[in-house]
TrEMBL record:
<protein>
    <submittedName>
        <fullName>Tdrd9 protein</fullName>
    </submittedName>
</protein>
<feature type="domain" description="Helicase-associated">
    <location>
        <begin position="352"/>
        <end position="443"/>
    </location>
</feature>
<dbReference type="InterPro" id="IPR007502">
    <property type="entry name" value="Helicase-assoc_dom"/>
</dbReference>
<keyword id="KW-0175">Coiled coil</keyword>
<feature type="compositionally biased region" description="Acidic residues">
    <location>
        <begin position="184"/>
        <end position="196"/>
    </location>
</feature>
<feature type="region of interest" description="Disordered">
    <location>
        <begin position="167"/>
        <end position="196"/>
    </location>
</feature>
<feature type="coiled-coil region">
    <location>
        <begin position="269"/>
        <end position="300"/>
    </location>
</feature>
<feature type="coiled-coil region">
    <location>
        <begin position="10"/>
        <end position="44"/>
    </location>
</feature>
């Protein structure tokens, strides 16, 4: 029984050993299967990660290309905007220059009209003076006619008186000597004929002088008619126009001179003054007026020449102004700066500006070989200082462009909240109340951050929400005014 029990035990042990061996074989198979499965999973994971990395790299490249495209588009838009601003400024400058030239042209026209009015006034004065001269000449002729007629009447009265005396004398002597009467009558008739011829001669000379005044200078005509030439003086046809009386050359003027009132051949100064002084003074007035007329004509010619010279000068000044304007406002600002020859800044200030730009990243390094970075190009396009432009640039890189723009706008503008001042508030209680109200309003939008820029950003967001909550649009003026308040 004991051996039988041992055999049974051995069989059981061998069966257990076989079973364990079989389990070991199964475990090895499972291990190999798990190893192969793990390797396949690792391969799949590596492939999947490789594809994911490729996709990420592809997306990153596309994102970088899109970012570059957006940057180029922004730069192009900014350059176009700057060109539009420059065009507007040039247009405004050209309009200002055109207005200035128009004002100068209006001033020239007004001055020209003023000169034309002055010339017209002078012409009217000259015409009036000519009319006065003609009036004086007519009056002089009428006075000479009246004088000649008066002299003729006086001579006729003298002749009648002499004839009457002669008749009375003849009646007295008729009874005394009849034989001598005949001879006396003949002599008297000859004397009467000589006196009549002399009177007619004087009348003809007076009328001749009056007629000569219309075809020769008035002083010469009066002197010719009145005998104001010495007995040595002779006149020819070159001096005396052809008339019915004076038609021989070399006639002695003494033959045509009537005697003085005293009966002498030569006239004294007193007789000439009494007889012709007034006429001579009138003639002097006429000559003075003629000289004034000639002077006015010369002045008119001088005014016309000055007007022509002034017009030429204005044209030259306008041309020079246009040339200067063309040089002053050229199309290229660089040419204008070079033409202006601006003074160079201080080297110390240039060095400080270079250090500050390099510190903020606007240029690559603090040296003369530095180049402008992307931040520097952005700063050239934005109407902000360097720090705020850097804020916008960082916001664009971190995907917070809207917030960065809002913060830059807030920091570059005035404070939206009112700040009470004791300078304008007399009551201390009112000042404290207003100060507390302003601080409460600031803390309401601060959100516990204790930051002025973030508080201003939150205020802007609340304003946008309130604005769009009521469906306001920018075309509604009343709503826009409310929003601004």
């Amino acid at each position: 029984e004991a051996p039988q029990a041992d055999e049974d035990r051995l069989e059981a042990i061998s069966a257990e050993a076989n079973r364990l061996k079989q389990q070991i074989v199964d475990a090895k198979k499972e291990k190999d299967f798990a190893r192969s499965r793990r390797q396949s999973i690792e391969k799949e994971s590596v492939c999947e990660h490789t594809n994911t990395a490729k996709q990420i790299a592809n997306y990153h490249c596309r994102l970088q290309a899109m970012h570059n495209t957006i940057t180029v588009d922004k730069e192009e838009a900014n350059s176009l905007r700057q060109n539009c601003r420059n065009d507007d400024r040039k247009k405004q400058s050209q309009q200002a220059l055109a207005r200035k030239l128009k004002e100068e042209a209006d001033l020239c026209k007004a001055h020209k009209a003023k000169l034309v009015v002055e010339v017209q006034t002078e012409s009217d004065k000259m015409a009036a003076l000519r009319a006065e001269v003609k009036t004086y000449e007519q009056r002089l002729k009428e006075a000479l006619e009246r004088k000649v007629l008066a002299e003729a009447e006086v001579m006729a009265a003298k002749m009648a008186q002499a004839a009457q005396e002669q008749l009375e004398k003849e009646e007295e002597d008729e009874t005394r000597n009849v034989t001598m009467m005949t001879g006396s009558d003949d002599e008297q008739e000859e004397d009467d004929e000589e006196e009549e011829a002399r009177v007619l001669n004087d009348l003809e000379l007076s009328y001749e002088g009056l007629e000569l005044s219309s075809i020769m200078p008035v002083p010469a005509a009066v002197r010719l008619a009145t005998g104001h030439i010495s007995h040595q003086e002779k006149m020819s046809k070159a001096d005396i126009p052809e008339t019915g009386i004076l038609e021989r050359e070399g006639i002695e003027f003494g033959r045509w001179t009537r005697p003085s009132p005293s009966g002498n051949k030569d006239w004294t100064e007193e007789e000439l003054e009494a007889e012709y002084g007034e006429h001579l003074r009138n003639l002097e007035k006429v000559l003075l007026e003629l000289r004034q007329e000639q002077a006015e004509q010369a002045e008119e010619r001088r005014c016309q020449s000055r007007l022509a010279a002034l017009k030429q000068k204005k044209r030259q000044e306008a041309a020079a102004a246009a040339a200067r304007a063309g040089k002053r406002f050229p199309w290229s600002m660089g040419n204008w700066l070079r033409s202006e020859k601006a003074e160079a800044p201080d080297l110390k200030n240039v060095e400080l500006a270079r250090e500050r730009n390099a510190e903020l990243g606007a240029i690559s390094e603090c040296s003369e070989d530095a180049y402008i970075t992307a931040l520097g190009r952005l700063c050239l396009q934005l109407p902000l200082d360097l720090k705020l432009s850097r804020l916008v640039w960082l916001g664009a890189h971190f995907g917070l462009m809207a917030d960065a723009v809002v913060l830059a706008s807030v920091l570059s503008s005035l404070d939206s909240f009112s700040m009470p001042s004791p300078l304008f508030m007399r009551e201390e209680a009112d000042f404290v109340e207003r100060l507390r109200s302003a601080a409460s309003a600031r803390l309401l939008f601060d959100g516990g951050e204790l930051s002025e820029p973030l508080m201003q950003r939150q205020l802007f967001l609340e304003w946008l929400a309130e604005f769009h909550k009521h469906h306001y649009v920018w075309g509604d003026k009343d709503k826009v005014l409310w929003a601004r308040r």
